[in-house]
Amino acid sequence: MPEQNLDFYQLFFTENLFLVPDQQATFSPNVAAATQSEEVNGDTNSKSKYRLLGKNRKGLLIVVALPEKEFLALPGHEFLTKVLVSIRHTPDDVAFINLAPREKLDTYYLSKETEVNYLLAFGAGLLDMNAESKVHLYKPASLGTTPLLIADVLADIENDVNKKKSLWNGLQAIFLK
Questions:
Q1: Does residue 152 contact residue 137 with C-beta atoms inside 8 Å?
Q2: Considering the domain 52-175, what is its CATH architecture?
Q3: Which residue, 23, 26, 32, 55, shows the most beta carbons closer than 10 Å to its own?
Q4: Which of 11-25, 55-69, 80-94 has the weakest average pLDDT?
């Protein structure tokens, strides 16, 4: 392996860095190129950072943080289906993204992976946004040119009439202008 010049790292890191040789790890550009060019079929993309559930026909991404069993049942969730129908969408028109606890969605990375025309987050704190972003629950906002609505957790909305009204007002402002 050719000798590497690592002096430039001192400009970025203040603590000491150590280069540990790894005898088993080898890099082959041919293998990397083959991996990137493989096509993935089905409703989920196993090569991406985020696992998408659904066909995403209209570019509406719904972000949640649920246990796996509840997440897999989302396309058939009765209340969510009613919400989607009210904004002229079906479960086939959207993609669902499930985040692990305390994980935040990197919207920039996601936009490189899939079409994002609308973003709907059921749960506060699911999106990786900077401190200057003043996005309030149920108030339509945007990330660049992408309309965004952040709401409470789906189960809370389903059981609270006031939250349903707030969600409906936010959805109308985005989808039914």
A1: yes
A2: 3-Layer(aba) Sandwich (3.40)
A3: 55
A4: 11-25
Query: Which residue is listed with tokens 């649920």?
Result: 66
> Which residue(s) pair with 63 in the sheet?
97, 121
Instruction: Tell me the C-alpha distance between 120 and 61, whole Å.
Output: 6
In the numeric block, which tokens belong to residue 25? Answer: 């790890």
Closest CA to 117 of 142, 87, 140, 135: 142
Sketch the domain layout of the chain as residue ranges: 52-175
Would you say residue 22 has pLDDT above 90?
A: no
Amino acid of residue 89? H
Whether 127 and 121 have beta carbons less than 8 Å apart is answered as yes
Contact 84, 91 (CB under 8 A): yes
